[in-house]
Design a protein that fits this description.
The chain has 169 residues and is mainly β. The protein has one domain (14-168): Sandwich (Immunoglobulin-like), CATH 2.60.40.1880. Helices cover 12% and strands 45% of the residues. The chain contains two helices and ten strands. The strands form two sheets. Strands 1-2-3-4-5-8-7 form a seven-stranded antiparallel sheet. It is globular, with a radius of gyration of 19 Å. The N and C termini lie far apart (44 Å).
């Protein structure tokens, strides 16, 4: 007789299902894409939900930027991936519309996809994003020390974020 106990099968409760009982969800909110999934891990099934926007250069079809955001208790955490060739020492500065610029955020690393910035956005900046039209990302080109700005549309951001928060409940 064995002393080993068979592992319990993963039980999916209503709290770990997405709307309609789905295991995956994909919705478009203006210029933002919402992606929700149920992932099974050691702690059992867990819901994840991100809102994202990707910009592709029309001619070269190369990615200009990718931003993925996850709501977490009144804040937003996420990742911004920008092209190579930016000054790591200067980092990036975020600005919603014409509001004041946030403090510089350092680059975390560079991966084959591009230069990575980790985002941790507080409730005050979340409110600005919800009410804003454009998120400007200011950086410095490494070779020329010239400023460059990337514009991220906030069209649909507020509804995407609200929906992501609801999906995670």
């Amino acid at each position: 007789m064995s002393d080993q106990v068979a592992p319990k099968p993963a039980v999916t409760t209503p709290n770990t299902r997405l709307p309609g009982g789905a295991d995956a969800l994909r919705e478009v909110h203006g210029d933002w894409l919402l992606i929700g999934t149920v992932q099974t891990g050691e702690a059992g099934p867990q819901k994840t939900c991100v809102i994202a926007q990707e910009q592709i250069h029309n001619d070269s079809r190369q990615r200009l930027l990718l931003i993925e955001l996850r709501p977490q208790a009144g804040r937003i955490k996420g990742t911004l991936i920008l092209p190579f060739g930016l000054s790591f020492q200067k980092g990036v500065v975020l600005q919603v519309d014409d509001n004041s610029m946030a403090p510089a955020i350092p680059f975390r690393t560079a991966v084959p996809m591009g230069c990575v910035v980790e985002l941790d956005i507080d409730a005050l900046r979340v409110a600005l994003l919800k009410a804003g039209k454009i998120l400007h990302v200011h950086a410095i080109v490494a070779d020329t020390s010239s400023p460059i700005a990337f514009a991220i549309s906030l069209n649909g951001f507020a509804t995407a974020l609200t929906r992501a928060e609801a999906v995670l409940r």
